[in-house]
Amino acid sequence: MSIHIPSSESIAEAARVIREGGVVVMPTETVYGLACDALNDRAVARVFELKGRPNENPLIVHIAGLDDLPKVAESWPPIVEKLAERFWPGPLTMVLPKLPSVPFQTTGGLDTVAVRVPDHDVALVLIEESERPLAAPSANPFGRLSPTRAEDVDPELAAQVPMVLDGGPCRIGLESTVLDLTSDEPRVLRPGSVSRADIQAVLGRPLGSAPPPAARKSPGLYQRHYAPRAAVVLAEALTSGQAGLTFGEPCGPNQVRMPLDPRAYAAQLYNALQRLDAMGVDEIRVVLPPRGEAWEAVHDRLKKASAS
Ligand code: TXA
Ligand code: MG
């Protein structure tokens, strides 16, 4: 695996790879992404192939700021500018009508595009230097854990890309909140660290309460996802012989003490699961975190990681 410390030279080299239609791994504040030119359908097809991702599952397009929105979105309601002012750069992805120049390969055949501005200097400089909007799904084989450190990128996947830019551990650690703004009723399609309450405070009204859309319309909603190789089992407590994530003092080996703060928990979750998985355990038991809105994204990922 070719891990590069970000420097003006290595980022310029990664930007060249992208302009030539290649794929690199880049850091963001949420998780590492497998990045390519979002407007190049062949490059995007390669990303799907590398991940083993179903073609109808659309990618998020990363831009450097609100000023880049006209490069990918056809139109947007005025609230988008307020949301961008509050949350960009940051882990809020907004789904908007796409421009014809954004290939259907990128959007999984949908006429909408999901856009965000990552809050990570390496990603922002890479977008600017490549002079392209970057399509970037999480840099993991389909269905597996998203990497939150360069060394957590699946070695087989990393071996197939020319460069992995190492931006250190991801500050947030869970994928962005995905917000659909294509109807009158804005709706959260995927919970993340930007909470419903955060969004509602900007909207000045409640989010849509429509039933969850069909898998086709909101393709991130596969039942099993974000999963290590080991089976994940949600539990009330761990016994000494069990591997897993717990709160408080561990009572056996292969147990990781997790923080009781939801943001700190999110930042460590995937790396903790990955470490236990790498030890070859068959089962990872996860002591359930508290309920409450601040934990929604964590519960969402744990539920998907433990689905059979
Ligand atoms: O934090 C993140 O969002 C990371 C980093 C790399 O930016 N990316 C990420 O990408 O998590 P990915 O491909 O693993 O997840 C993209 C999610 C999926 O749930 C997908 O269905 C949804 O965004 N999505 C993308 N385009 C969409 C669209 N046009 N309509 C509805 N959902 C969309
Ligand atoms: Mg993903």
Number of domains: 2
Q: Give the termini separation.
A: 31 Å
How many strands?
14
Q: Helix and strand succession? A: EHEEHEHEHEHEHEEEHEEEHEH
What's the gyration radius in Å? 19 Å
Strand percent estimate: 15-25%
- Strands of the widest sheet, in order across it, are 2-3-7-4-6-5-9-10
CATH architecture identity of the largest domain: Alpha-Beta Complex
Helix coverage percent: 25-40%
Low-confidence spans: none
Q: Judging from the principal axes of the Cα atoms, what is the shape?
A: globular
**CATH class category label of the largest domain:** Alpha Beta
Q: What's the average pLDDT?
A: 94
Q: Helix tally?
A: 9
Structural class: alpha/beta
The third-level CATH topology of the largest domain is DHBP synthase
Oligomer: single chain
Keywords:
DHBP synthase; four-stranded parallel sheet; eight-stranded mixed sheet; 308 residues; binds magnesium ion; globular; alpha/beta; 14 strands
If you had to describe this structure to a student in words, what would you say it looks like?
The chain is of the alpha/beta class and 308 residues long. It folds into two domains: 3-203, DHBP synthase, CATH 3.90.870; 231-306, no CATH class. The chain is 28% helix and 17% strand. The radius of gyration is 19 Å and the shape is globular. The mean pLDDT is 94. Threonylcarbamoyladenylate (TXA) binds at residues 28, 30-31, 33, 57-60, 91, 93, 95, 107, 110, 112-114, 118, 136-138, 175-176, 178, 189-190, 218-220.
